[in-house]
Amino acid sequence: MTSRRRTWYSVAAAASIALITSLATMAIMQRSAKNSYTAKYEDVRRVLNNIQRSQNAIIRDINNKNSGPTNPGTYGGTCFAISRNGYMVTNYHVIAGADSIYLQNNKGEAFKAVSVFEDVSSDLAVLRVADSTFRTAPLPYTLKKTPPASGRKCSPWATPR
């Protein structure tokens, strides 16, 4: 019986060691997985914080009226007003391919504009100022809505009558 008992103790000891080893391995794996999830959570949180900071900066830029583009282009041109409510005329080649259009007044204030009409063949474009804070002085000229009478004397020079 001693040999049987000894065998029984040996089997019990081996089973106990196997059980303890299995439980320890499971605990280590769970801890490792928890650390992995924590690291992934930290990464996601960091990315979300960066996105939130970026969005807040964009919102601040939008709310900051009369500011020019954050990365101004290297192109420029001229235009002239055709109405007091923000319609301007310029050459089409000035705005061709532009992803954004800003107009600058003589005070240095910049206003966002959008193209409302483009004619490539005559190289003309009509722009509308999209900024609600845009104000202009009365125009020193007007555009007549009626065509001139036939036989009216015309001058090639821009001289007032």
What does this structure look like?
- With 161 residues, the protein is of the alpha+beta class.
- The protein is 41% helix and 17% strand.
- The protein contains two helices and five strands.
- It has helices spanning 2-63, 92-95, and strands spanning 79-81, 87-90, 101-104, 110-119, 124-129.
- Strands 1-2-5-4-3 form a five-stranded antiparallel beta sheet.
- Strand 3 and strand 4 form a beta hairpin.
- The radius of gyration is 38 Å and the shape is rod-shaped.
- The N and C termini lie far apart (135 Å).
Overall geometry comes to: rod-shaped
Query: Can you list the strand order of the major beta sheet?
Result: 1-2-5-4-3
Number of strands: 5
SSE order: HEEHEEE
Contiguous runs where pLDDT drops below 50 for at least 5 residues: none
Name its key features:
161 residues, alpha+beta, 5-stranded antiparallel beta sheet, 2 helices
Layout of helices and strands, plus pairs?
Layout: H1 2-63, E1 79-81, E2 87-90, H2 92-95, E3 101-104, E4 110-119, E5 124-129
Antiparallel strand pairs: 1-2, 2-5, 3-4, 4-5
Summary, kept brief:
Helix content is 41%, strand content 17%. The chain contains 2 helices and 5 strands; from the N terminus they run H-E-E-H-E-E-E.
